[in-house]
């Protein structure tokens, strides 16, 4: 297909597609004349992933390029490619202070992971952006007067594990390893608002059950 | 306590506290002289909440003011104050297009809520920002080539409900209704990065279990 059709089918304006091509986020098309190139289904798929990362996930261009590079790194096995790509996604603010709250948060998170028997997470703690994000979040809670203990975090970790199982079950429906890797990155980002909105809807439902006037359940 | 001590105990610079006072996010102190005011524990608590909303939750000043106004609205009962305050929090991008994907997403979400028997969520669907956020996220997934059916969303809804139960259990530890309301708003925002990081950590753990070389679990 030509650029115009790629734009129509993806819903991405041609100027934006040209920008992604210049930035190396999308591989060049197959040149058919001095001024025209031909694109295929793989381009369309990649364009959708780039759009998911940048427009929905608000991933910066440089991080998006890192994610895509990891997906194509033939020197890594499937599991490592997936891990490297997800690690390149943004993970919120980096830890700022190594104060008492940060040290206590690290001890709490380490005790949580040990209690869960998450051996992989413990082994890669020092390098993992998700581990740093968790320590930062727990330290912030404590600084703001909401300290949380291992037992407070445990139900969130259990839900996290159920979500991960659901995520990987969804991803395994895609047949080729390449499509699975793309789906893993896209669904990690795109299911975040699904999850956060369902939590808020469920909060209102549960709050109504506990404290409501009962009128809506009559 | 004086402004300097409020700043020291909260970790918020005095210039920022003065800004919050001017913007009406923090009630004025008790004036003790022409140039000095006295603050109490309630000011410290409110300041922590404002900081959680603005610095961690990236809630805009105007939304923060709406949240705080709802918390103090004596005309509402506890459950309604909580709902109004959480509704005033940001909920991601508003739906942009009412295209086929959006209409299909609405049908999917409605079928999900009906299947779960979430009567409150169904009744308030038209007004709920979390419902709109969910429809927008499902429509985006579909436009990007990842359509999701009711059965795909069900495990995320189940996790959402478990999280809501954990959230309300945490909140109920606070004794006074006012402290519970503040905690509900703060913990809704502050536990989002906890949850998202635990999901990513669990993904790596589960991916390693399914596809890993086994080396880290030997």
UniProtKB/TrEMBL annotation, chains A, B:
Tell me the domain of life: Bacteria
SMART domains found in the cross-reference section: HTH_MERR
Q: Which InterPro entries match?
A: DNA-bd_dom_put_sf (IPR009061), MerR-type_HTH_dom (IPR000551), MerR_fam (IPR047057)
Q: Which Gene3D superfamilies match?
A: 1.10.1660.10
Sorted alphabetically, which keywords does the UniProt record give?
DNA-binding
Q: What GO terms are given for molecular function?
A: DNA binding; DNA-binding transcription factor activity
Q: List the PROSITE patterns.
A: HTH_MERR_2 (PS50937)
HTH merR-type domain: residues covered: 1-70
Q: Which Pfam families match?
A: MerR_1
Q: What is this protein called?
A: Transcriptional regulator
- Native source species: Streptomyces formicae
């Amino acid at each position: 297909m030509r650029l115009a059709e790629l734009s129509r089918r993806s819903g991405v304006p041609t100027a934006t597609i040209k920008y992604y091509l210049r930035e190396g986020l999308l591989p060049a098309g197959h040149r058919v004349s001095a001024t025209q190139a031909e694109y295929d289904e793989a381009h369309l798929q990649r364009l959708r992933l780039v759009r998911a990362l940048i427009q929905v996930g608000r991933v910066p261009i440089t991080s998006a390029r890192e994610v895509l590079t990891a997906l194509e790194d033939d020197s890594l096995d499937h599991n490592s490619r997936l891990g490297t790509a997800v690690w390149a996604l943004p993970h919120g603010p980096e830890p700022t202070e190594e104060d008492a709250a940060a040290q206590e948060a690290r001890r709490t998170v380490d005790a949580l992971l040990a209690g869960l028997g998450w051996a992989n997470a413990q082994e890669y703690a020092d390098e993992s952006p998700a581990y740093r994000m968790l320590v930062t979040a727990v330290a912030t809670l404590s600084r703001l007067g909401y300290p949380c203990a291992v037992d407070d975090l445990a139900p969130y970790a259990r839900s996290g594990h159920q979500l991960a199982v659901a995520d990987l079950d969804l991803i395994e429906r895609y047949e080729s390893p390449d499509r699975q890797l793309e789906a893993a990155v896209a669904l990690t980002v795109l299911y975040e608002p699904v999850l956060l909105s369902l939590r808020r809807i469920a909060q209102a439902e549960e709050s109504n059950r506990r404290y409501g006037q009962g009128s809506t359940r009559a």
